[in-house]
Amino acid sequence: MRAMVQALKEYYKLSGEYAVIINGQVNLMEGGEKFRMSKREGRIYTLDELLDEVGRDAIRFFMLLRSPSSELNFDISLAKKLNVENPVYYVQYAHARIKSLLDYASSNGVSDGDIRDFQNEDERRLARAIQFFPYYLLKTLPLTLREEYLFGKGGISSDFLPNLLVDYLMELAGEYHGFYQRNRIVGDNRQRERLRLSIAVMNILKTSLELLGVSAPERMG
Predict the structure, then answer these.
(1) Segment 167-184, tens digit of pLDDT
(2) Nearest to residue 195, comparing CAs of 210, 176, 171?
(3) Which domains does the chain possess?
(4) Is residue 69 packed enough to be buried (19+ CB in 10 Å), middle (13-18) or exposed (0-12)?
(5) What is the pTM assigned to this prediction?
(6) Which run of H or E residues covers position 163?
């Protein structure tokens, strides 16, 4: 395949790269126990059955929790939970929480404003989390040695590692949930700045989930 693609590129003067990504094994788990499949005994769990049981969003998100070369334990029970224990619900809930906040602010005549400075550590932490988004996608930000240790040397687009984006979304959602719980947003004298931070997080969550093929709901059940 590589030789054929290379020949076609040279003949038609095409650009781009061809890469083969071999995924690691996926183990289905139910209630902490591994689901053991056997063709001989007729114990088979198809992807269509998994799709019917947990839905498209959970499958796509869970499959990207690990790097392609790593073995993945897919916990069916966890994927069906409608609470923050479920990773995809946790991230989607952050998006829905911000959308609800913005609707509330709009109904009270409050709009967002420019961010000029950060008054507390929660605002600074959230702003730092936001600024790493382009690095995860394109590896464009210069990093210190400590940041390189924390975030790794590879980029999502350059090294075919979408799991890094999932890791980032989990961290960003966690930062925002903490920020939301510890700080009053609408009604505070810094409400416009905090709404601007919230909008930035929501836009990143929406864009990233769309890149992963996962929905960004405005309301959670």
Answers:
(1) 999 999 999 999 999 999
(2) 176
(3) 2-79 (no CATH), 87-211 (1.10.730.10)
(4) exposed
(5) 0.82
(6) helix 163-182
